[in-house]
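// run 5 | inverse folding | seed 20
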């Protein structure tokens, strides 16, 4: 069993923003498999996906980004799985647009959602998939940037990134994190 948490903010106002790419990945993945992520549980919306014999719990915290750790703690306490069976999908403004970076235990960095998870799990030692949604320029306000919609020129890059994230998650769930990292880390050629 795996738990895949996509980070984002609830509500249509935030749906198309850079910060919600975790939600976008889970929504598209669920749609491709003909399932819904709609069950209210763990202060989240939850869906269940099966890949072969692997049961995968898809989790979209409804606590808003800065309190994501509350929901993640609840789901981890309920299922009592080891941390290596948790994958958090999150936007990253420190890496290049279109970059996909899977790490077994990357630190939280400056991301408020990951900081919240750290506060509630008391560790960074779990897999993360960081998705480059555009490199943040220091002369801008960070909140304005992550809560902005990608430009029309960036849309195809984001769409491709979402598709590669889904493919990487399927490999992670069925064949392991090492193969997913080897096959999908980086940018498309």
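// decoded
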């Amino acid at each position: 069993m795996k738990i895949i948490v996509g980070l984002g903010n609830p509500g249509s106002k935030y749906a198309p923003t850079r910060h919600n790419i975790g939600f976008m990945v889970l929504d598209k993945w669920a749609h491709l498999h003909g399932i819904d992520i709609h069950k209210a549980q763990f202060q989240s919306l939850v869906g269940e996906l099966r890949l072969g014999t692997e049961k995968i719990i898809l989790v979209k915290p409804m606590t808003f980004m800065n309190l994501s750790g509350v929901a993640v703690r609840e789901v981890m306490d309920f299922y009592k799985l080891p941390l290596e069976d948790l994958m958090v999908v999150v936007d990253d403004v420190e890496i290049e647009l279109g970059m996909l970076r899977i790490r077994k235990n990357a630190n939280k960095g400056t991301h408020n959602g990951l900081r919240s998870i750290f506060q509630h799990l008391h560790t960074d030692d779990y897999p993360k998939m960081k998705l480059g949604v555009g490199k943040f320029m220091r002369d801008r306000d960070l909140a304005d940037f992550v809560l902005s919609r990608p430009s029309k020129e960036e849309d195809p890059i984001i769409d491709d990134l979402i598709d590669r994230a889904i493919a990487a998650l399927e490999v992670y769930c069925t064949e392991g994190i090492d193969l997913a990292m080897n096959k999908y880390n980086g940018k498309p050629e």
